[in-house]
Amino acid sequence: MVARAPPAAAADAGSVELVVVLLVGSVAVSPVERAVAVPVGLVFRNEATFLPYYLPCPDLFTMQLQYREEKALPPFPQLFYPQPKALHQMRTDVLTLTAWLAPIVWEGTFNSDLLDSIYKPLNLTIGVTAFAVGKYTQFVGRFLDSAEKHFMVGYCVNYYIFTDNPQGIPFVQLQSGRTLSLVPIKKYKHWQEISMRRMEAINLHISESIHDVDYLFCLDIDMEFHNSWGTETLGELVAAIHPGYYNVRSREELPYERRKTSAAYIASEQGDFYYGGAVFGGLVKNVYEFTRACHMAILADKANGIMAAWQEESHLNRYFLSLKPSKILSPEYLWDDRKPKPPEMRLVRFSTVSKNYKELRD
């Protein structure tokens, strides 16, 4: 904004024209006057001197750029909870924060009541995708029944079940505010092809249909919820540590794709954690970008006649190496019931169902 001084002011300045430049792009807040401090440029003979100028502009305090996935947080509730202590860690037996400052969610590291008091007023809707293809339709009933008991209880949830056999999906009574949509997909001969097509199908469905949810989780159908899965898992981009590799001694033990010809290649001296492909999620726009990138990498491998060691899971790990997840779920959220529960696992929230893989994939 440029304002020119009146003639009298110019004469007083010694016949030098005074130009006042309001640099509105750079502001500082004065909490006392509730005004915006705007630097003012006084231009004399192509030289500028900047002086503070307070421009009453209360609207700037409430202006926000709104997206579907961004909602203004309500005033912090007046709750009573234990005082945080800077010198006291809630868990000392496990890692709770990564080097890039992403929290790792374990039981005992969060307050569910406090989180719900923040998220409930936002009226969030959480989406869930799962694939029930071929004989995997037998797991849908158990998955949904357990989800209704433990997954985001008290929140609106939209389930999206991708299936090649809609008639094989059982009826499950859902809570109020929760819906089930069946997404027809093509039937493939080999389970590897189904796995490789998952990223493509999710990405396509997000672009075409999923516009009514705030967060989206992509989960395997042959799993069961055992304990609460709540808003502690919400984040911009969320990954889960694989239960088989959370306690390895070195990176060499992680089953990354090691062939340089693959788009999923990770060098032996690289890597953070090994993430499981059975659980990932985040804001819808971030899940869209993530699934698109993985799908493009899978297509690149296919064009070069190569399939990554662990199909989409290998590409998932490669993506998270470059673009770190903002929140990581501990193995509590992705457990394998065939493994004994170690002492650091205070509870299991989501785990695989015992099954015969050969029978399912034949």
Automatic annotation (TrEMBL):
Gene3D superfamilies tied to this protein: Spore Coat Polysaccharide Biosynthesis Protein SpsA, Chain A
InterPro entries in alphabetical order: Glyco_trans_6, Nucleotide-diphossugar_trans
Subcellular location: Membrane
Any Pfam family the entry gives: Glyco_transf_6
Residues the entry annotates as binding an alpha-L-fucosyl-(1->2)-beta-D-galactosyl derivative: 242, 313, 336
GO biological process: carbohydrate metabolic process
Name the record gives this protein: Globoside alpha-1,3-N-acetylgalactosaminyltransferase 1
Organism of this sequence: Eublepharis macularius (Leopard gecko)
Lineage: Eukaryota, Metazoa, Chordata, Craniata, Vertebrata
